[in-house]
Amino acid sequence: MGAYILRRLLLMIPTLVGIMGISFLVVQFAPGGPVEQVIAQIQGTDSGDRLSGGSDFTQAGSAEDSRYRGAQGLDPDLIAKLEKQFGFDKPPLTRFLDMMWNYIRFDFGESFFRNASVIDLILEKMPVSISLGLWILLVSYIVSIPLGIRKAVKDGSAFDVWTSGIIIVGYAVPSFLFGILLIVMFAGGSFFDWFPLRGLVSDNWAELNWWQKIVDYFWHLTLPLIALSLSAFATTTLLTKNSFIDEIKKQYVVTARAKGLPERRVLYGHVFRNAMLIVIASFPASFISAFFTGSLLIENIFSLDGLGRLGYLAIVNRDYPIVFGTLYIFSLLGLFVGLISDLIYTWIDPRIDFEKREV
């Protein structure tokens, strides 16, 4: 196992470099970079639509600034200062190598437009994303595993059919659309005004006592959590059901039943450990998915100031230190989570030995 772990750790290096390299290359061709955005503000042509990439800007008229839209009439020295400020005075390869060297030392630099370090911004926004990720995972596992077991036992029954219908509909509807529906229905839209529309806590949260803070926290969390739980709930339920069905059909279950063991002991004493192998081993990956990727649109819809919203605004504003810093951290965590998932497999089922696999 030690050799397998070492191989996986070594493979992380080219994988991480590849992810960052491809992303860095794509950014080089993306219009509307930070220099163009500052030029737009100076010229007064910034329409506020940062996703447009400066398409309303006129082409530059001089050779010195011809690669920036909207730079005509500006002093070339000013353009040079802006390039130096944002690090664009160096060749792309040099900038990439410098960035990777800094990231290896976990030096993510300063945000272009927020006047704060990237790591401080990530730590500031992380509690919101942790709240969403933890509660989504907890709710989905608490509900999905018992439901999946019940569906496996009642496979083909009316209970299995109608619950499968609900699960499929819930999985098919995107979480952000369901979030909008919840806002319209219960957050002051066209029907009821039962839940707050934005934020994770109220403005007077510091003035509340401890139990009021708990109530206020879950009051704000209810709608985002319901919207985000749908896909995770459906996936875990069906995964649990299919795993149990596969195990129930095996010979050792037939033998256990033939010996007269109670059905509950057969299910939870013999089937459960083998059937839950894939579900439990996927826990780290499910947490990372809910933590970092699942909340992007929901955070924007419900105005939750978390990592998803931070990354979205960084992309819109071309704040490259935040974009690449968060990408590096999330990619690194994702690679480590993949390794942890494999180790959990071997811990749950010692028969699995990745050491003997060919690389």
Descriptive overview:
With 359 residues, the chain is mainly alpha-helical. It is 68% helix and 0% strand. The protein contains 15 helices and no strands. The longest helix is centred in the middle third of the chain and has 39 residues, at 210-248.
- Computed structural class: mainly alpha
How many helical elements? 15
How many E-type strands?
Answer: 0
Low-confidence stretches: 47-66
What general form does the structure show? Answer: globular
Put the structure in a nutshell.
The protein has helices at residues 2-28, 34-43, 76-86, 92-104, 118-153, 158-172, 175-186, 210-248, 251-258, 263-275, 277-281, 283-293, 296-301, 307-316, 320-348. With 359 residues, it is mainly alpha-helical.
How are the secondary structure elements laid out?
Blueprint: H1 2-28, H2 34-43, H3 76-86, H4 92-104, H5 118-153, H6 158-172, H7 175-186, H8 210-248, H9 251-258, H10 263-275, H11 277-281, H12 283-293, H13 296-301, H14 307-316, H15 320-348
